[in-house]
Design goal:
transmembrane; about 0% strand; about 75% helix; 8 helices; 2 domains; transmembrane helix
């Protein structure tokens, strides 16, 4: 900033000095043609001021002309600004999209954690530790919409078909993943010793039968006791 200020002072002093020199030459010329001292001084002042005025007008004219030529023949500045703006918009949108994806992933992970906690709580008294782990993995596979062939069977005791129906409905209602027929196929695959001989359509029709019967009952919200 100081350098620019000093540069302006030098320019203006140079212009003023040039105008004064022109004024002096004009005064000398006026005296040489017979003008008196007063008239010569008037000529000096007039020429000096006129020089300053001409410089100011030319500066404004040249600056406007330069700007006009630059906008007319070199419009790249606008073209450069526009991509920068678009780039900033894209970066902002990408940031929002990434944040939204993370929120969705966090919600999905939370839903899986709730379902697994519920499953382990319900089945812990009725199956082995090994099968409880397999059952938890099955719940994760169902939530992630993996192929039914990846589901592994488990063995349970003391539970009957209505308990498993209610369990299936609770899990389906929690995730709302796929339709109830897919949940029926999932139950048939996980609990073949109890549901292996039951038709998938039959399982689907009875998922919510007798809501308060059985060890496992219908739950509207798995996160609530």
């Amino acid at each position: 900033m100081h350098s620019k200020y000093f540069e302006n002072i030098v320019i203006y002093l140079s212009v003023l000095l040039g105008c004064i020199i022109l004024g002096i030459l004009a005064r000398m010329f006026a005296i040489s043609v017979g003008a008196d001292e007063f008239t010569a001084n008037i000529v000096f002042v007039a020429v000096t001021l006129f020089g300053v005025l001409v410089y100011g007008l030319l500066s404004i004219f040249i600056k406007d002309l330069f700007t006009l030529i630059k906008q007319r023949f070199f419009p790249k500045e606008k073209q450069v600004t526009e991509p920068i703006k678009k780039s900033n918009d894209s970066a902002r949108i990408d940031k929002i999209r990434t944040k939204q994806k993370q929120l969705i992933a966090d919600q999905e992970n939370n839903n899986k954690a709730i379902a697994i906690q519920y499953t382990q709580t319900v089945f812990a008294p009725y199956t082995s530790d090994k099968d409880l782990v397999l059952l938890s993995r099955n719940i994760t596979s169902y939530a992630e919409k993996k192929r039914i062939s990846e589901i592994q069977s488990v063995e349970v005791t003391e539970l009957n078909s209505i308990d498993l129906y209610h369990f299936g409905w609770n899990i389906w209602n929690h995730f709302r993943t796929g339709n109830q027929l897919q949940m029926a196929a999932f139950l048939k695959r996980v609990f073949p010793s109890i549901l292996g001989n039951v038709e998938t359509e039959t399982i689907k029709r009875h998922l919510k039968d007798d809501e308060q019967r059985g060890i496992i009952q219908i739950r509207k919200n798995l996160s609530e006791e």
